[in-house]
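In the laboratory, one determines a bound structure by crystallizing the protein with its ligand and collecting diffraction data. In a computational setting the workflow is compressed into a single prediction: the sequence and the ligand go in, and a structural description comes out. We illustrate the idea with heme C.
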Amino acid sequence: MLHRYGTDPAYNHWRGTVPGQHGAIQVRISQRNPTPLFGVGLIDAIPDEAIEAIARKKLPSSTGIKGRVSRLKDGRIGRFGWKAQTATLKEFVMSAASGEMGLELPEQHQAGDPRFPGRGANGLDMDANECFALVTFVKELPAPGAINPADDHEAVQIKAGADIFKTIGCGHCHTPNLGGAEGIYSDLLLHDMSPVLEDVGSYNVFVENQPNAGNEAGDPSSVGAAGFREWRTPPLWGLRDSGPYLHDGRASSIEQAITLHAGQGATSARRYADLSPRRKRQLKAFLKSLAAPTRQR
Ligand code: HEC
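The predicted complex, in structure-token form:
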């Protein structure tokens, strides 16, 4: 995990030397926008069957949409992260503590420094109780809800926007409710979003020299982790407060995020582009009503 900034003055220079050929190893890097943590306890509690059921649901072939379950090597369903690469909230939080923050944990050890063999962490940064407390805290973070409209006019706009969202096919992937997570606006499935949104792929440290690390992108019968062009439908709850958008943060506005939809999302993006300015405003009013929780516990 390379951070954008480091505390060591030499860090930026060193960071620039990372991509490229190092001996037999070709290093490629790709940028990630951290996923919001709203309502992740509810996502953790969604039964596997609900995710499997929504993957079996057949949409008309004219939609061009077929999502698939992200299956991890051990057979469990992946549901967290941009590539649905992690099965449980506990693993998601622990891998962030270990990977993004470099902490030494009871079940996840830091790699040694290749320059100094035998030298490792001086001890645990968090013990098992502290790990449990951190996961519990994140699990309890409240789920977002829709804001209350300021007046009748806004209420009408939001309602009209919700109908448009459904009509132009956004809800095929961004399904409003899933297995008890009301208002999640995601099917948690992987979708082929075409080369427009492609990047170096899964989170494996070493990726075999195949375009999809064993998967046919977009082939719903393929099993295993996400291919280069596949992304998990991100939940839209809390959207108003979670920008920038898309897996690498390339969209600074909600509108940009929509127009960049390609592959399986192309049809609905085109239908969005064809909306009148008034209807676009209504759709955006609806999307902006999906706000982060305000009540702090
Ligand atoms: C084929 C499934 C699919 C359809 C249909 C679809 N989306 Fe998406 N949506 C996705 C995926 C997958 C991503 C993430 C892509 C990425 O990050 O590269 C995404 C990302 C987004 C984002 C950015 C969310 C974030 O947190 O970064 C917004 C906003 C969004 N979609 C809104 C819409 C709207 C509005 C429509 C209808 C016009 C729509 N989507 C139709 C699958 C879909």
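The CA atoms of residues 180 and 255 lie 28 Å apart. Keep in mind that any predicted model is a hypothesis to be tested, not a measurement.
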